[in-house]
Amino acid sequence: MEVKTSLLDNMIGVGDMVLLEPLSEDSFIENLRNRFDHNEIYTYIGSVVISMNPYRSLPIFTPEKVEEYRNRNFYELSPHIYALADEAYSSLRDQDKDQCILITGESGAGKTEASKLVMSYVAAVCGKGQEVNKVKEQLLQSNPVLEAFGNAKTVRNDNSSRFGKYMDIEFDFKGDPLGGVISNYLLEKSRVVKQPRGERNFHVFYQLLSGASDDTLKKLKLDRDFSKYNYLSLDSAAVNGLDDAANFRTVRNAMQIVGFMEDEVQSVLELVAAVLKLGNIEFKPESRCNGTDESRIKDKNDLKEMCELLGIEQSVLERAFSYRTVEAKLEKVSTTLNVSQAYYARDALAKNLYSRLFSWLVTRINESIKAQAKTRHKVMGVLDIYGFEIFEDNSFEQFIINYCNEKLQQIFIELTLREEQEEYVREGIEWTNIEYFNNAIICDLIENHQNGILAMLDEECLRPGTVTDETFLDKLNTICAEHQHFESRLSKNSKFLTDHSLPHSCFRIQHYAGKVLYRTEGFVDKNNDLLYRDLSQAMYKATHSLIKQLFPEGNPAKVNLKRPPTAGFQFKASVGTLMRNLQTKNPNYIRCIKPNDKKAAHIFTDSLVRHQARYLGLMENVRVRRAGYAFRQAYEPCLERYKMLCKRTWPHWRGPAREGVEVLMGDLQVPTEEYSYGRSKIFIRNPRTLFFLEERRRQCLQDLATLIQKIYRGWKCRSHFLLLKESQIVVAAWYRRFAQQKKYKKIKSATTVMQSYARGWQARKLLRELKYQKRCEEAVTTISAFWHGTQARMELRRLKQEALNKYAVTVIWAYWQGTKARRELRQLKEEARNKHAVSVIWAGWQGTKARRELRRLKEEARRKHAVAVIWAYWQGLKVRREYRKFFRANAGKKIYDFTIQRIMQKYFLGLKSTTPSMSPVDMNWPTRPYRFLDGVHTELRRIFHLWRCKKYRSQFTEEQKAVYEEKLEASEIFKDKKTLYPSSVSQPFKGDYLEISKNPKYQKLSSAVDEKVLLADVVNKINRANGKGTPRIFLLTKKSVVLADQKTGQVKASVPLPDLSSVSVSTQSDGFFALRLKEGSASAIKGDFLLSSEHLIEIITKLHRTGATAADSEQLNIDISDEFLVQFKQDKVCVKFIQAAALKNGNSVSCKRKNNRLLEVSVPASA
């Protein structure tokens, strides 16, 4: 059973300040202290949430807490920021009311964290899904990016927002987020060039130097040492608990999630590095011959590196720092800048460069997170802006900030009273007008179009002549002297002439939160916020892609002599737009308070909290809320909470809830003037009445608790007795069962013993009988065996005797035969020995005769050989003597040449018979017979191959030649560059795949095209919104490319070939290609074409050949890369090709939109 709690249950102090009794500033502060000491950092003022910064983590922001406050009534649980976020989200989702959450407070009060908590709660309770989660992630990840570039460490806050932010989160009818829009207000760009003591520049500078890799820093020409940069404060470069390196990685990841491309991130980092380099540029004075002073740059190394980062010519930027050109109609006057003016120009450029970069980041984030659908959206706005500021030295920034807070206070009072009044009218309660301070007179003092302070400041900045802060103050003293909220010592009002707390160079305004003293020094310069035109034009000449977007006024073709609007005018317009936006939405307020200046936990400084409570107007808010009815509650929860105070309503009321409340209030005898009945709520005027009801409820609850305890104890004792009784019955039953089982086992055991004895006696008796019978059978068998054995032995002896007699005769005969055989053998051996002796003697005599004859023949042969050798030598000598007179000295060379000639002749004749076939693809060639023929062998092979190729080409017709020329050009373009190319080599180039001239379906299209169609095929035109393709007919003629509808044949687009700048394809095996159009051409209005075809190689080859042969067109560039940009109308979209192991739709290519700037094409990996 779910137990519901209430705001009034277990309350520490008073959870809603409207119920505080007695109401005073001291009791108000004491109630905040009491709750803060018990870790209750949230307190209500009606529907307004007061948030105290605890400066530590508390276990009240867990996912369990999110579920606890989800879909709950605002006052149902203890005060929490989740209750306000849930109330706003539920009203937006269920009642279709646009909401805004206004978060105010001074620096360090926790405004940024409060806005994060609101956004994280809304993200947690809204719908789920891949697209919804992606939108939520982009909305949440926009915070780290903006914090890095817009937040800084101050003396009051380590992560202080130095800009105002308003985010509109857009939802669909189900309450799921679709996107958002961010607006930024008044970035404190003066911090870029100068920071107060103990404070830092913006976080991104320190994060870049601490977290970037060495390679990245080398590309940006930066060093990790903070001390090398003049724009970085060194006394507080390191902050405890702040890891700049880890935060840099977080920012890079957040930019990737939001949708920044890698080249965009690199461009942003280059601009940040350029700002750091810009601060290191220093100037020295130099006197000219005419007596004027001019400035020169001391060390040009930083200037050189900055120009290399931004792609600016060094001489152009150097001149812009030394000279200023003033244009007036048709005249141009160039003046030199002294050192102080040069430093002013440098700082102005740094501030403008950074502030414009920040505005570009906001615009770029808006492009990524904006809602895609065009239908009407529900909107929830979250405003995180500066609180009211009162410093010892207040300047132009504090004046602008406090003006914004005056407008917010004005709309707060108006919307609070309006909401109060509308609720009374809606509930039918009589309304009494509430007296309150209307700060419209202060807003009019500042923003009046004629006599307002901002109007006079703009007038001073625009008028000719000498304009200083003193002339501006004089004008204020003249015009605003009689205003009751303006104070100046030099005004006509005599009561301030002797006020020594008011310096001569200052003026004081009595704001709703107190008096603030403003020093006029710097008002005019900060309002002008001038950047010399020379610097703007120098920036526009940069080759850096982002710089041109940031300085459009530097375009020489669009010179505008009109003075740019002042900072005050721009901020006033922005505030006006913001106020009109807020007035169209239902407001929800979070007032953030800083408990101490030490940024420490468990410390509550009364004076500081009191000061913040005053300028936030919290007491006025309580009084306005209590001026009518202090407490209101719907009839159902009111009756549910207090029904036990009346016997007629307890425990159940059967009728309508309002009648039950009327019966209840009448039975309690509450005075009728203390409450009123609305249509759906009861309104209680005085908190004492509510506390009276709570006290009676507490007493009744005690009585009910006692009654419940009594009934519970009786029920518990009866239950215990019944349990004991039931247990006794169960125990007795189990015991009787156990006793019977034991008796049965004993009887069974005795019976088993008796049975075993009887069976044993019977078995032994049977065994004895069987043994006796067996012995008898064995005796008969033994006697029979002995008798048969005796008979067998007698027969055996008889047989042996007979055998012995036969064996003796055989042996005697065998011995006689052996003796005869041996005698015969000896006789034969004697005869054989006599014959062998004769043979040996004859063989010896024959061998002697043969050896003697052999020696005689050898001697005779040696004599004949000697004679032949001598004769050969003699014949050779005679020949040489005879022919010596016929030979000259070069006879050896002639013999060598003759020999070589014969070898070559033999080589060529052999080559004739071994020549390979006439096929150009036959790479066989006979081996060389001699090494000195290497060169000739190679050259002959080359000449033969060229000759047979020529013979082979001479067989081609003109059509075949054109096809092979196209195939050759395709090879030059795509070979070893695109994976798809090898599979296209074997496919012939057909050209007209649709037979457009013969097909009657395309007769209308054929007549619409005048030139000869070189190629006709069906392609898919890729839609950038979802990555899906639409079939189109693709026609290529000698002059243009035509895209037509496949079904109707109607021409959708016709692009002349001179308007094509390049074609982009990937290196993968896909068929995607992009037709890139020249900027400024008539065809480029609708943007480039992203197409897909099965005949990609043929289309690109024919396009390239046609473009090369056309007389009026340039060579068409073919860009082969896995990532390229395509211009769709005004937006550039990156098409990225990735390899996927396996795709859901088999091996086909799929294209999906990842975000507004990225189309991802998944290509199956090649085997």
TrEMBL record:
Compartments in which it is found: Cytoplasm, Cell cortex
GO MF annotation list: actin filament binding; ATP binding; calmodulin binding; microfilament motor activity
Tell me which residues make up the TH1 domain: 978-1165
**Domain Myosin motor, first and last residues per copy:** 12-698
Does Ribonucleoprotein count among this protein's keywords? no
User: Which keywords annotate this record?
Assistant: Actin-binding, ATP-binding, Calmodulin-binding, Isopeptide bond, Motor protein, Myosin, Nucleotide-binding, Phosphoprotein, Repeat, Ubl conjugation
Q: Which Pfam families does its entry note? A: IQ, Myosin_head, Myosin_TH1
What does UniProt give as GO cellular component?
brush border; cell cortex; microvillus; myosin complex; plasma membrane
Record InterPro entries:
IQ_motif_EF-hand-BS, Kinesin_motor_dom_sf, Myosin_head_motor_dom-like, Myosin_TH1, MYSc_Myo1, P-loop_NTPase
For biological process, the GO terms are:
actin filament organization; actin filament-based movement; endocytosis; intestinal epithelial cell development
Presence of keyword ATP-binding:
yes
Q: What does this protein do?
A: Motor protein that may participate in process critical to neuronal development and function such as cell migration, neurite outgrowth and vesicular transport.
The family classification in the record reads:
Belongs to the TRAFAC class myosin-kinesin ATPase superfamily. Myosin family.
Q: What is this protein called?
A: Unconventional myosin-Ib
Organism, as annotated: Labrus bergylta (ballan wrasse)
